[in-house]
Structures are given as structure tokens and as C-alpha cells.
């Protein structure tokens, strides 16, 4: 198939404006006749549902949690980028665009990224107007901090809980529309299938997680804003419930999956402590503003941090990348940590850790200033490790944090299924092969508040809709499919728990499709995962029934999809014979060990098309062109 | 170490529940409380236990989403300062400890299963007025209104509420005053929140009463267990605004007919 990205041509600075002008509009009195389903209530989903409610559409919003306020966007700590240039330090829309394209290692669409940078300034205004309590200076103006991959200070923040505050802003806007009767909220519902009728997405089938009932909902448009799939690694900084099910089942109904192997490994997380570990906790990248990362210079140095003199410490990021120092992009910082630990210079009991040291900043600024900036993060660290970061350096190690890949969407955020849109982390679009810090919140909100409402309107205004209800045979087929999967999971031989499979999957993915990948390992992983899938469906242990609140059943469905996704990620990583951003193939590196891109052969988006249960997905390529930021070897030296 | 758990088991909202005893051997002090329950649940699954694994709500496990929460030995989230259950680690317990786990108890929070309750009443309180009525696109520049740092900080202190419900569970009256007042104080300390301030207080307090939450009698248990350190003074803030709103209430111009 041919992919039509619908990217506008001409001057990049006016592409979005011209696109909006060319869009068809829905007459205000016709808006309430259109129904929209939004799945997910994080930054992208809540913002989109609220905004489309404000516009007058008839919106239904779904989430699997008990309340839309709990979506995983809430856990984002550090901040949101915006090209406001309030600091007068040389920032501009163009610079944010440039930094993001470069940070993504030239594997994102220029047009999308420019639009994101352009909209970033409106997001701050919108959130401030909602009452988001961003940090302020004494004069009453907004405060900024720096983040990796940028030499300007453009990150807006609310202590270490920026995601929480932005999400609560969107949640409140959503609740306002719920109160106004324009949005119906359906919490504790998990989307388990997409329903297409006459080639258009016309509804979803979901499971009511409280009663177990399988429910169908019809609409003119379906919007997925269901987040990322980092939990394929079992251990990640994602919430336990984060999963790929909604997008994966849409993939099986015709939506192409873009760049699945592009995963972000975040450099600063609390290291693993034992086999029982259920998740990893991120320590915000903003800590790298004031913390210095180091390991002992000598291999196998087991002395306590305080006993290692300054002259025997290796501040390796400052040494290797003097221009950006501790603020190099995430992929680069993570690989450097791995390299140190592989050399045997890691710290902590396991040897898989490096120090993030605040002693110098505490001396320079005082403990109170540090507490004001990062107090809640320091508290969280102490609660988990039992160590006080005001007196001992933190121990950190990279962990899976974000997935740049996701459903392929065109410039108007529509997937390859007409009427199916995909927003936020769930789509593949704006971050290329590596996302810069504080850009996920920006993308989720830009998609939700501004881009999706415009594009969905355009689709509604330019499409004919046959009347459809949930008695249609396509809904009945999807319901039967959902019942069939439930029955199969409940009917397996109950030999191994879902979690034990999930943990195995995670180990395979981390070992062979994690920070470094190679052809041999990936081939091995594909075989192992395919065998794991077979064993899963035959022997998984799911207790209880489908007609009750059953958390084991919920997890079982999600892990089944993650297993299939894991296999696709490995195939994608194998097919991309270059290194770029977070995708580091050991076969392709520069003499200094940096990622070596192959622009001649791999300057494209990999979009994978489902071919049926027993077949491998087919690869469809969307070529990438760069008219403004010329691809170069990324250098942060 | 070895921990004995007594856990409330209840199949659904209408079924009657009962305490059930479980032994968890080999608990590591570095485990979180929920990881200890994970280990127990894996064991119950493997043994094909008739009641199945224990249902409890959780998601981020970083103390920010507000999903988790139950009573540990009668204290919401276990009673450690500014700590949700997911952030509570087993190093705070001793070998041989006997630990009792119960769901939040409040008429407004019916039990769904085991330790999981329905907190949708909180959403309805926010929906009744816990927002600034500003639609997408109609915002002035972020720096157009200067906000005193102190006001912004006070707003943030209150905005940190995670909506876990510990305040309700700890309150002998099952009052939702700390939760409701946190939102009122968050928006009430900011210039953006002023136009709707009194109306908001009126609507949210009325909704709170409709939801069968009890009244506040200034006991302070809520403040003691709040994992985000929301303070009792927010309730005073709410009561002041509610009194003013009640006294100053007048029909809107729309009701008296201008047009």
C-alpha cells in the first residue's frame, strides 16, 4: 500500500495555518449531531475530549482507571517545553523545532515538529488560564529550567509534578464538559476491539471492568489516546496498567504501526533492587540541571562514595560531551551509563548504577534551594531506597521510559483507517528516534487541545456517514471476538501466572531489544518470543470468570498483546540496519561508539501492516525529507 | 521476615465480606507494601486458592496517581508521613508483625471488591465546579497576569491533592472536606480562579453534601494521613468562602430577565 502523509508543501512556517484554512468546517448547529469516541483520558485524551465538548460535539470518553484523573500523564515530573523565550536567551519556535528534529536524530517529520513548536506557546497560555500553578519568580512571572538536548532554558514546571498539574488542568476542563452534558465519561472501561463499517472506524467494543459486561459504542469518529507500550519490558517507569491493547487491536483492524522499535531508555531511574520488583521509578531529568553524574575512575572500586577523592572520580558526561555536559539527550546519557557499568565501574551492590551527586549544588545554592526545586523527588528517592540524597549521592541507572513508536498517523493525526485518529504517545509522529525531555507533555497537549479538534472537524465535515448502531453485524462480530479471547484465556491449562510470562518477556526485550541491539540477538529474541506466545495461550493461569471484576483477566489480555508487540519490535529493530537515537545497533557505530545513521538507505518511517494471525506484518515505508534541518551526525561535544 | 496479614475479602458490592488470614514468608525489607501483596497474590494463584488473588487498586506506584490506598492497622496508607501505600516499604515492619488490611470505609465509597472502592463521588464534586471556565483558545499570554510567588506556591500546595480518599477514610464522619477544600484553595489563591470563586465554593460544598459525605468537625485526622500534606487551613478557607457565598448569593441577571 501507499502511505499518504498529507504533509503540506511550501514554507514550513505557514504550513499549519494554511492547512487549517483549507479544512472544511462543521456548522455550529451540526456539531451536536456528530458523535466522537475518545479512548484514554491522559493529557491528549482529556484535552481532546474537553475541547471537542466545548466545540459542541457529542463526546464519549473512556478510561480503564476509576477516574480520568489517574491517567499515567500524571506521573510526568520535570516539565513542558515551550518556545516563549521569556528568558531572552535566544529561543524561538524555529530553535525548538531545530532542537527537536536534531534530538530525534532526523527520523521525525519536519512539518509535524514545526507545528508542535508553533503550538507550544499557546499551551502555556491555555494551562495558565486554567489555573495550572506553574513555578513563578518573585516578580510574578513564569519561571523556567533547562532540560537535556537544549542550550536554552525553555521548560515550564510545577515543582516535580508538572504532569500532574497539566493533567489536572485537562481533567478539570473535561469535568466541566461532563457537567455541561457534552461529554459522557465511561471510566473503568477497557477498549478491546475497534469496529470498522464500510472502511470507516465507527465504534469500539469494550469490557466494563466492574461488571465484566462486554459493551459496544458507536460513533462517527474514534480517537485513540491510550499512551505508550513501555511495559513490554515488564520493568519500566510506566504505570502498572499502561498497555498497548487499544492500539494493538486497532492495528489488527487495519491501522499501521509506526517505528515500533524506537524506545526511550531514560538515564536517571532508581536501580532495580530484587526479583520481586514490580516497576521502576524515574528521577526527573531536571535533576541533571544541578546534579553531576560520575563513577569511580578505577574498575571495581567498592569504596563508599564519600571515600573516593575528587581526583579519582570520572564525571564522564562532562568529559565526553563538554558542550552539553550532564544535559546531553537521554539516549546518549543512557548509553554512556551502560558503557561505564559494562566496564565494571558501576556502583551499588549490583554494579548497575552510577552516581548523581548534588553535593556541589547544595554547597553552592544551599539545601533549601535544592529542596524547593526537587524536594518531592528527593523524598521519593529516600522512601524507596532508604538513603538520604542530601547527604549521599543518588544511585541511578537507565530504565525504559517512553516509546516514540506507535500507530502511524498522517499530518492530520489520522491512522490508515479512515475516521480513526491517534494522539499523544500512542502515535509515532513527532519525536523521531529519540524524544527530548519535557516534549511528551507538549505533544500530548498540542495533539489534544489544538490539532485533533481541528482535524477531526475537517474529517467530519468532508465525510458522508451512513446511520449505524450497535446492532450492526460488525459490532456483533467484534463482541464475539472479545468473548472468544476471554474464553480462551480463562480456558488455558493454568500452569503459569500472567506475571511470570510478562517478566520473561521483559527480560528478553531488555536483553536483546534494549539499549543495544544486534542481528544475532534479535533473531534469537524473535524465536523465543514466538515460543513464549504459544506457551502463553496454552498454559496461562487466569482464575475466576469473565462476568465479574477480575484483575487477572484484565492483565492477561494486555500481556497477550504485549507479547505480539514484542515480536514486532524485534522485527522492526532487525530490519533497521542503522543506529539512530534510541535504536542502537552494535553493528553500526562511529569509531567513538556513537550511533551511526544511514540516511541514504534508512531515512524513512517503518510502518507495519497486519497480515493476519499466522503471518508476519508487512513493511511499508514513508520516506522522510528534510528541507530545513539538514541531517548531520548529532554532536553534543 | 515473615508477615501475617488479615485481609478484608468481599466478592462484590452486594456480597457480605469477611477477614481472611494469610502468611507471607520471606518478605524483603526493600519491597514496597504492594510488592509484598504481589508476591502473596502470585502464591495464591499458583495454589489455585478458592478466593483468588486479593483485589486492590494501584497504577503508577510512585505515589502520584492516587489509585492505591487502604487501611493498614486502622491507619489510611499505613500512617507514615506523606506516604501512599505504594511508596510504603517493608523496612518499616518487623519480622512476625500481624497486619490488618481493610478498604476505605465510607457510605460514599462503596466497596467494589476486597480492598477496592468506588470513588466516583470525587469526580462529581470536581464536575460541580472545580475548574476555571476557560475554553481552549481563549487564553491571554501566560505572563499577562503576574502572580505573587506566595500565592502560586499556596495554590500549588493545594493542587497537589491526588484524590486518593485517605482523608475520607480517616475521618470519623467520612467527610470529604479536605479533598473539596484543596481544590477550592488551589483555584481560590490564583487570580484566574477569582471570577467564579464563591459560586464554585457553593456548588462544590453542596455536591459534597449530596454525595453522602459527612460534615467536618475539625478533628484533623485527614490532615494527619494526607500523603500530600494538604492542611486543615484549607478547610477554613473553604468554610469562609462558603459562608460568604451563602450570604452574598443573588439571582443571576439572566434569571431576573434582561433579555
Highlighted features:
heterodimer; A: 637 residues; alpha/beta; Flavocytochrome C3, Chain A, domain 1; Methane Monooxygenase Hydroxylase, Chain G, domain 1; 5-stranded parallel β-sheet; 5-stranded antiparallel β-sheet; 17 helices; 21 strands; B: 259 residues; alpha+beta; Ubiquitin-like (UB roll); Fumarate Reductase Iron-sulfur Protein, Chain B, domain 2; 2 domains; 5-stranded mixed β-sheet; two-stranded antiparallel sheet; 9 helices; 7 strands; 34% helix; elongated
Give a verbal description of the structure.
The complex is a heterodimer of chains A (637) and B (259). With 637 residues, chain A is of the alpha/beta class. Among the domains of chain A are: 266-400, Succinate dehydrogenase/fumarate reductase flavoprotein, catalytic domain (Flavocytochrome C3, Chain A, domain 1); 473-610, Methane Monooxygenase Hydroxylase, Chain G, domain 1. Helices cover 37% and strands 15% of the residues of chain A. In chain A, strand 6 and strand 7 (200-208) form a beta hairpin. In chain A, helix 10 (359-365) runs antiparallel to helix 11 (367-385) and helix 14 (498-512) packs parallel to helix 16 (551-575). In chain A, 61% of the residues are buried. With 259 residues, chain B is α+β, with helices and mostly antiparallel strands. Chain B folds into 2 domains: 3-113, Beta-grasp domain (Ubiquitin-like (UB roll)); 120-250, Fumarate Reductase Iron-sulfur Protein, Chain B, domain 2, CATH 1.10.1060.10. Chain B contains 9 helices and 7 strands; from the N terminus they run E-E-H-E-E-E-E-E-H-H-H-H-H-H-H-H. Chain B has helices at 33-46, 120-127, 149-159, 166-170, 177-188, 197-210, 221-225, 233-248, 253-256, and strands at residues 3-9, 18-24, 71-72, 75-76, 98-102, 111-113, 116-117. In chain B, the strands form 2 sheets. Chain B has a 5-stranded mixed sheet. In chain B, strands 6-7 form a two-stranded antiparallel sheet. In chain B, strand 6 (111-113) and strand 7 (116-117) form a beta hairpin. In chain B, helix 5 packs antiparallel against helix 6 (197-210) and helix 5 (177-188) packs across helix 8. The termini of chain B are far apart.
Amino acid at each position: 500500500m501507499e502511505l499518504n502523509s498529507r504533509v503540506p508543501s511550501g514554507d514550513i512556517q505557514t504550513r499549519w495555518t494554511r492547512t487549517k484554512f483549507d479544512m472544511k468546517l462543521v456548522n455550529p448547529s451540526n456539531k451536536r449531531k456528530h458523535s466522537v469516541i475518545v479512548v484514554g483520558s491522559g493529557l491528549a485524551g482529556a484535552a481532546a475530549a474537553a475541547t471537542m465538548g466545548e466545540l459542541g460535539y457529542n463526546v464519549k470518553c473512556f478510561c480503564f482507571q476509576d477516574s480520568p484523573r489517574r491517567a499515567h500523564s500524571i506521573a510526568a515530573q520535570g516539565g513542558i517545553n515551550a518556545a516563549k523565550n521569556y528568558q531572552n536567551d535566544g529561543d524561538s519556535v524555529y530553535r525548538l523545532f531545530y532542537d527537536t528534529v536534531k534530538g530525534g536524530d532526523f527520523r521525525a517529520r519536519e512539518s509535524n515538529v514545526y507545528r508542535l513548536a508553533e503550538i507550544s506557546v499557546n499551551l502555556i497560555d491555555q494551562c495558565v488560564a486554567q489555573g495550572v500553578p506553574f513555578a513563578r519568580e518573585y516578580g510574578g512571572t513564569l519561571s523556567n529550567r533547562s532540560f537535556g538536548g537544549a542550550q536554552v532554558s525553555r521548560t515550564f514546571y510545577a515543582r516535580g509534578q508538572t504532569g500532574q498539574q497539566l493533567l489536572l488542568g485537562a481533567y478539570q476542563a473535561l469535568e466541566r464538559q461532563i457537567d455541561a452534558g457534552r461529554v459522557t465519561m465511561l471510566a473503568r472501561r477497557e477498549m478491546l476491539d475497534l469496529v470498522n463499517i464500510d472502511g470507516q472506524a465507527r465504534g469500539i467494543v469494550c469490557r466494563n471492568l466492574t461488571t465484566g459486561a462486554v459493551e459496544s459504542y458507536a460513533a462517527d469518529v474514534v480517537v485513540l489516546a491510550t499512551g505508550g507500550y513501555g511495559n513490554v519490558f515488564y520493568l519500566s517507569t510506566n504505570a502498572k496498567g499502561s498497555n498497548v491493547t487499544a492500539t494493538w487491536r486497532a492495528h489488527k483492524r487495519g491501522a499501521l504501526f509506526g517505528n515500533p522499535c524506537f524506545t526511550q531508555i531514560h538515564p536517571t531511574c532508581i536501580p532495580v533492587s530484587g526479583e520481586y520488583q514490580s516497576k521502576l521509578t524515574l528521577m526527573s531529568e531536571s535533576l541533571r540541571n544541578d546534579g553531576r553524574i560520575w563513577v569511580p575512575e578505577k574498575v571495581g572500586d567498592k569504596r563508599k562514595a564519600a571515600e573516593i577523592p575528587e581526583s579519582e572520580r570520572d564525571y564522564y558526561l562532562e568529559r565526553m560531551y563538554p558542550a552539553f555536559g550532564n544535559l546531553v539527550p537521554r539516549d546518549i546519557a543512557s548509553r554512556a551509563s551502560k558503557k561505564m557499568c559494562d566496564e565494571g565501574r558501576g556502583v551499588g551492590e549490583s554494579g548497575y548504577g552510577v552516581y548523581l551527586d548534588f553535593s556541589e549544588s547544595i554547597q553552592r545554592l544551599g539545601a533549601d534551594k535544592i529542596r524547593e526545586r526537587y524536594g518531592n523527588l528527593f523524598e521519593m528517592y529516600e522512601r524507596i531506597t532508604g538513603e538520604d540524597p542530601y547527604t549521599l549521592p543518588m544511585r541511578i541507572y537507565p530504565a525504559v521510559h517512553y516509546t516514540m513508536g506507535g500507530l502511524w498517523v498522517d499530518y492530520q493525526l489520522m491512522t490508515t483507517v479512515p475516521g480513526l485518529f491517534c494522539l499523544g504517545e500512542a502515535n509515532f509522529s513527532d519525536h523521531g528516534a529519540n524524544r527530548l525531555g519535557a516534549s511528551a507533555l507538549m505533544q500530548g497537549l498540542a495533539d489534544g487541545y489544538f490539532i485533533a479538534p481541528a482535524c477531526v472537524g475537517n474529517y467530519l465535515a468532508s465525510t458522508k456517514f451512513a446511520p449505524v448502531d450497535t446492532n450492526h453485524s460488525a459490532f456483533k462480530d467484534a463482541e464475539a471476538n472479545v468473548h472468544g479471547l476471554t474464553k480462551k484465556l480463562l480456558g488455558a491449562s493454568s500452569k503459569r501466572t500472567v506475571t511470570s510470562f510478562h517478566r520473561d518477556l521483559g527480560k528478553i526485550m531488555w536483553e536483546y531489544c534494549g539499549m543495544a541491539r544486534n542481528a544475532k540477538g534479535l533473531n534469537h529474541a524473535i524465536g523465543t518470543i514466538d515460543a513464549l506466545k504459544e506457551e502463553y495461550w496454552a498454559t496461562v493461569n487466569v482464575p475466576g470468570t469473565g462476568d465479574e471484576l477480575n484483575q487477572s483477566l484484565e492483565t492477561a489480555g494486555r500481556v497477550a498483546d504485549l507479547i505480539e508487540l514484542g515480536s514486532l519490535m524485534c522485527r522492526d529493530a532487525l530490519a533497521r540496519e542503522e543506529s539512530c537515537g534510541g535504536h542502537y545497533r552494535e553493528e553500526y557505530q562511529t569509531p567513538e561508539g556513537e550511533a551511526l545513521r544511514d540516511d541514504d538507505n534508512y531515512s524513512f518511517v517503518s510502518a507495519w501492516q497486519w497480515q493476519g494471525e499466522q503471518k508476519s506484518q508487512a513493511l511499508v515505508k514513508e520516506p522522510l525529507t528534510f528541507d530545513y534541518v539538514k541531517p548531520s551526525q548529532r554532536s553534543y561535544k | 521476615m515473615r508477615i501475617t496479614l488479615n485481609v478484608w475479602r468481599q466478592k462484590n458490592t452486594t456480597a457480605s465480606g469477611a477477614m481472611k488470614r494469610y502468611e507471607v514468608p520471606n518478605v524483603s525489607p526493600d519491597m514496597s507494601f504492594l510488592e509484598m501483596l504481589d508476591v502473596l497474590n502470585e502464591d495464591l494463584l499458583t495454589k489455585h486458592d478458592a478466593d483468588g488473588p486479593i483485589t486492590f487498586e494501584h497504577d503508577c506506584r510512585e505515589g502520584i496517581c492516587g489509585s492505591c490506598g487502604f487501611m493498614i492497622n486502622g491507619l489510611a496508607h499505613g500512617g507514615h508521613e506523606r506516604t501512599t501505600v505504594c511508596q510504603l516499604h517493608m523496612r518499616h515492619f518487623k519480622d512476625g508483625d500481624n497486619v490488618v488490611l481493610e478498604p476505605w470505609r465510607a457510605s460514599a465509597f462503596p466497596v467494589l471488591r476486597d480492598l477496592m472502592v468506588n470513588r466516583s463521588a470525587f469526580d462529581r464534586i470536581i464536575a460541580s465546579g472545580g475548574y476555571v471556565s476557560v475554553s481552549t483558545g481563549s487564553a491571554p499570554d501566560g505572563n499577562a497576569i503576574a502572580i505573587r510567588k506566595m500565592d502560586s506556591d499556596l495554590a500549588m500546595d493545594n493542587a497537589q491533592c491526588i484524590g486518593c480518599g485517605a482523608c475520607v477514610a480517616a475521618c470519623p464522619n467520612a467527610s470529604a472536606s479536605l479533598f473539596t477544600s484543596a481544590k477550592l484553595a488551589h483555584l481560590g489563591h490564583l487570580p484566574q480562579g477569582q471570577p467564579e470563586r464563591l459560586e464554585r465554593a457553593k456548588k462544590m460544598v453542596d455536591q459534597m453534601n449530596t454525595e453522602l459525605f459527612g460534615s467536618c468537625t475539625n478533628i484533623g485526622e485527614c490532615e494527619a494521613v494526607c500523603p500530600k500534606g494538604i492542611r486543615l487551613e484549607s478547610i477554613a478557607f473553604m468554610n469562609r468562602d462558603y459562608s460568604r457565598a451563602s450570604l452574598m448569593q443573588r439571582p443571576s441577571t439572566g434569571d431576573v430577565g434582561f433579555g
